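Think of the structure tokens as a kind of shorthand, similar to the way a musician reads notation: each symbol stands for something richer, in this case the local conformation of the backbone. In the example below we present two proteins back to back. Begin with the first one, reading the sequence and then the tokens, and try to describe in your own words what changes along the chain.
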Amino acid sequence: MKKFMAGVVVGVLLFGLAFVLSSSIRSRMNVQKGIYSIKKIDGSLVSEGAVIGGIVYAPVRAMAAAVGAPLTVEGKTIFVGEPAISQSQTEAKVLSKEVLEWTNRINHLRGVINKCEVNIEVKKGEMTTLVAKIKEEKASKQKSPDRLKMLEADIKESNNYIMELQKDITTAEGEILKLQKKIDASQ
């Protein structure tokens, strides 16, 4: 019985010693673990962060989104916010109200030109179909002069529409050149 009691006492001492030593080692290593909430001033939850080994880890993307700053990652470097702009770059970016209006007008005219070009291609496709129908009609045994006249009128109408669109493109290109000259002269 003495041996049994001695074994119990030794076991309790070892268990207690292990618990004390582990907490002292943990405090020396400053190991901390935990999760915390990141909130905006209005109280809305942004995300959760973590404390591991005494270091706070915050989710950078969530933080950048919360403050409204752009975030870019290049290799192992994370950039939050706008890149630094030198004074000469700032001066170059400052445009007069007139120049901005001219630039906006140029962009609008380029959009008009693109639309016209798309419409021209669509009409050309329709005309190809009409030409094929005219060939079919001429080769047909049951020729219908009214249908043939109608198809030819559609082709003529499509040609007129294409010519109008090409005039619009030419006018827009001329206006773009004038505006570009004004912009170049103002700088």
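Once you have a description of the first chain, move to the second and do the same.
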Amino acid sequence: MVCGGFACSKNCLCALNLLYTLVSLLLIGIAAWGIGFGLISSLRVVGVVIAVGIFLFLIALVGLIGAVKHHQVLLFFYMIILLLVFIVQFSVSCACLALNEEQQGQLLEVGWNNTASARDDIQRNLNCCGFRSFNTNETCLAILGVWLTYRYRNQKDPRANPSAFL
């Protein structure tokens, strides 16, 4: 059986839409998990992530139904929507590439100053104190290194000779 005909295209499109469905459910699940555990305090960000997940889920559902039933109208609208999504992504990518490093810094700083709740969460969780300055928490890594070394130091390699010294 040669891959490249109708059956192969149908199976590839179904697999792609199942992958889109999994990604959309992952987006929705991670956003809900972040709200549930109180990791994210900005409901606007979570709302956008959930909305993108729902949009992707609906688009994947349209594509999957269109591919399974070979429904021409659904496949046409699926193609048009994916084309529009591609154009938006391409435009955003071009705009991002057009910014130089100084403009990126200014844009990030404006966003940093406009999101008070997210900024406070980041500063509290990462122990930093501003947009341009930071404070790495080396003590936590040092304690982790000491603990792992202590645990590993007295262990014997099961593959080693048991009569050998330690």
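Compare your description with these statements about the second chain. The chain has two domains: 7-75, 99-152.
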